[in-house]
Amino acid sequence: MTAQQPDSTTPDPLSADLLRKMNAYWRACNYLAAGMIYLRDNPLLREPLQEAHIKERLLGHWGASPGLSFIWVHMNRIIRAQNQEAIFLAGPGHGAPGVLAPIYLEGTYSEVYPNKSEDEEGLQAFFKQFSFPGGIGSHCTPETPGSIHEGGELGYSISHAFGAAFDNPNLLVVVAVGDGESETGPLATSWHSSKFLNPIRDGAVLPVLHLNGYKINNPTLLARIPNEELASLMRGYGWTPHFVEGDDPLTMHQLMAATLDRCLGEIHGIQQAARTSGEATRGHWPMIVLRSPKGWTGPKEVDGHRVEGFWRAHQVPLAGLHNNPAHLKQLEDWLRSYKPEELFDDAGRLIPELKELAPTGNLRMSASPHANGGILRRALRMPDFRTYAADVGTPGTTRAMNTKPLGAMLRDIMADNMRNFRVFGPDENSSNKLDAIYAVSKKLWLCDYKPEDADGGELAPDGRVLEMLSEHTLEGWYEGYLLTGRHGFFATYEAFVHVIDSMYNQHAKWLAICNEIPWRAPVSSLNLLITSTVWRQDHNGFTHQDPGFLDVVVNKNPHVTRIYLPPDVNCLLSTADHCLRSMNNINVIVCDKQDHLQYLSMDEAVKHCTKGLGIWEWASNDQGAEPDVVMVGCGDIPTKEALAATAMLREAFADIKIRFVNVVDLFRMQPAGEHPHGLSDADFDSIFTKNRPIIFNFHGYPWLIHRLAYRRTNHANLHVRGYKEKGNINTPLELAISNEIDRFSLAIDVINRVPRLQATGAHVKQRLRDLQIEARAYAFENGIDKPEFDQWTWPL
């Protein structure tokens, strides 16, 4: 592999002495990276290597590690020379040894974990814990100081980096992008993030596209196209690419140092021009393409097969060491090639002349407070959510758009928190009735403008509302923003929230581990509003009808997950206020944006949301008696239909006793021992009874409620109605009928399950069936629901 100069006129920036030291520091990193994969004892090879020193199970990834530590070592020089605040994100999480090694060498790891001290004993403990039971995983997990991104080729590294850079004007986020990772959809879209970086108020992101040529056992696409084509691709995205490539370490050090100097000069030039003029324009930011061999400096061949520079270097280059003396000897030769005796003193500490190459204090990337964002987090200045309340007189008789007052509340939150709060949404904030926020902050836009954009475009170079038609990129920005100590709110259509399923999963796992790490300060919760919901997708049809994200949410750690289904405006406002004040949770709020019936005054809503579920006395008539049936609404449309069914039943059967329950906090359905919000068995039995039929009308898939409540006393009498994958271009009521969550189906269900009504209710059932048929026929004929059904209000 030949080396390419970044600029033929650039002299070597490293003196001979500094070059020697930096290469030695990098050798120490590579020694540690290999050591943590293989060694459980004899950490400095002060005796001949034996099988007893080797871990029984060899887990970890060597291939990307040398390149990652190479970038880290060079960033340390920049940080020291310029007092530059910086953090480091490793996109290829499979190269974690290359990140853990410099973190240990600069002392942060020992500060956070004193038993991993900077001596021979601590080094042994550091090696043994890696990919070992009771230790740490093989990615840049939450246990890794300085990490806000676990990596692992899911494609979120660049979007996380930009989230960290937003509103951090002095921060440089260096992100190593794996070439395998670059084949993912989220990563490909995230290159556009540079168009949303305001050089006046934001920091900078420096991507280093690390092309080592291979994935697990295949070539990578970007490594197999010519530099000219790759440069055109990056320029097309709006970046200015710089190439550093080769395999000779000393030459590569000089090339990397010169290129970093040039890139930092370009970054500071863009920022200075904008900050001096006060005009924020889109910068063509620099990025680096680093081509180095996979498994650089490792074994070149094993058993006659190429390893360095090939996919066989991806994980463990030398396996089967036990009962294989030849491999054991090759491993020892490899480890000794780094000359650990020259790098560590008698006590096992990095020698002083190398130790001084690292930054100190919070300038160390591993110790940056930006990578432990809870330290920097400041509580939001919050308005009184009660001032946005809907005026509710008689319950169930007035209508309002549920999300519109929330938009006004978000507007005022943003106005009072213009440096640490942003709103994210994929081109949908106006559609979701949150457009009041534009009164204080437009949509961020740094691309070209057209005259017509002034007419309702709501675009501005200093906007704080981030809209892009990529849920992946938005979610990544949002997570990076939260993890570095700020706050935000994300609204998206229910049909498309599945796009970020894997991102939700990873963030939930990250938070769950953070809850177990004392030095990780809590960060603001991720608040996700799901709107444009399944029951109001009559215009988009079947493909847009999917409430299944809730099933995904329930899979994750109960100490992190929260699901709320507020039935009206005031419950939504109370819920949003609670969520925006919370920490270390993922709060999923499901609430449709259209006109809906309003039920509770603000005082009633606060009490109801605080309880999470409760009996609506005004809709119940079982006071002082046992109910014949418990009718439950969970979600806005299911609540309306359950109330309508209750009204019809009470009109048809004068003596029927119905208890009406509404559920806001879905996890109240679980036992207290399974979720922090779970209701005690005694309270659950009191509300839902021990032996009466429960008709539960649910927003999502019906089996989810059974999953949550299967251990409850009265589960055998729990009958859940929800979405059953039946839909098309339906009117709202017709869609409800198709899935049997409509008022007629619910009322018939009650008649079928209350023993004394099974015979006497036959005539009522027939009338209900007739009404149901009439509703369908009217919709097919007129394209809308019959007004008496659509505009129904609570009559009692």
| CATH class division of the largest domain | Alpha Beta
Side by side, the strands of the main sheet go 12-9-13-14-16-15
Mean of the pLDDT scores? Answer: 95
* Number of individual domains: 3
Helix content: 25-40%
DSSP strand tally: 22
EC number: 4.1.2.-
Organism: Candidatus Thiodictyon syntrophicum
Protein name: Probable phosphoketolase
Domain Xylulose 5-phosphate/Fructose 6-phosphate phosphoketolase N-terminal: 16-375
Describe this protein's structure:
With 796 residues, the protein is an alpha/beta fold. The chain folds into 3 domains: 16-371, Rossmann fold; 395-596, Rossmann fold; 613-790, 3-Layer(aba) Sandwich (Rossmann fold), CATH 3.40.50. Helix content is 36%, strand content 13%. Helix 2 packs across helix 9 (249-277) and helix 17 packs across helix 18 (602-611). The longest helix is centred in the first third of the chain and has 29 residues, at 249-277. The chain is elongated.
